[in-house]
Recover the amino acids of this structure.
């Protein structure tokens, strides 16, 4: 479970990106985070990942108050979360297999476990036949699948996706959404920031809308609600 209690984030230049946010995201939820540019979506995600700390309030992730966590323990927190970005961020000099295996090597997983887990995850994202390819030999959709495989290979409780379909054509974007929903069905909480109106409107999931750093909507089966 994720909980933000009275969370305010003011950047050093005095800009208040989020004001007094209170929200609970239950285990297994699928949440779209929407809102106009500058509304605070990226800041929300950075707070979850503890890339930035709130000015006020507390953030609880899987029972841990992350605002009280020492720097030394941040890697432990990050293990509970997988992250996917719009621009994939794969390592260009590693193959598909190596990109995914690397995420397990970092947490010092046993080599035997890596050899067992990586092919399983690659099969799940439909990339078994591309495991020896390098990122620049793959389509955008395939690269995003690798990045999703890397994000979930250590079985995180939460998958955070920041505009995961932003660089993809509509058909490919839908394939990625199917995959995210499939991962969510297996029990992983998904939090996805997006400007993809059609996807949000069709999927009928929980929608949290931010405007000027405040939550203006939180609907169980929500819609995008903006004209882009
Ligand atoms: N490092 C920073 N220093 C100062 N102000 C910042 C910083 N990062 C973001 N902001 C400001 O905080 C506000 C919220 O920004 P944020 O990036 O969270 O919005 P967003 O909803 O993700 O926007 P977009 O949809 O364009 O990605 C904006 O006014 C932005 O200019």
């Amino acid at each position: 479970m994720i909980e933000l209690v009275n969370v305010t984030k003011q950047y050093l230049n005095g800009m208040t990106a989020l004001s007094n946010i209170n929200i609970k995201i239950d285990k297994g939820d699928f949440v779209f985070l929407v809102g106009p540019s500058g509304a605070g979506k990226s800041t929300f995600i950075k707070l979850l990942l503890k890339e930035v700390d709130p000015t006020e309030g507390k953030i609880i992730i899987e029972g841990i108050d992350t605002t009280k966590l020492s720097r030394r323990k941040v890697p432990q927190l990050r293990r509970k979360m997988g992250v996917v970005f719009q621009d994939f961020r794969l390592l260009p000099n590693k193959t598909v297999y190596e990109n995914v295996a690397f995420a397990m090597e970092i947490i010092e997983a046993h080599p035997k476990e890596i050899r067992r887990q990586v092919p399983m995850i690659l099969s799940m994202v439909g990339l078994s036949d591309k495991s020896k390819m390098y990122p620049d030999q793959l389509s955008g959709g395939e690269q995003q699948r690798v990045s999703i495989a890397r994000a979930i290979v250590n079985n995180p409780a939460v998958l955070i996706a920041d505009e995961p379909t932003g660089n993809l054509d509509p058909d490919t974007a839908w394939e990625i959404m199917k995959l995210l929903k499939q991962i969510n069905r297996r029990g992983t909480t998904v939090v996805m920031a997006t400007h993809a109106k059609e996807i949000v409107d069709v999927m009928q999931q929980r929608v949290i809308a931010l405007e000027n750093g405040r939550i203006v909507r939180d609907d169980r089966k929500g819609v995008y609600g903006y004209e882009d």
Summary: The two ends are 31 Å apart (CA to CA). The beta strands are 2-10, 16-25, 30-34, 56-61, 64-65, 81-85, 158-162, 189-193, 206-211, 214-219. Residues 91-145 form one domain.
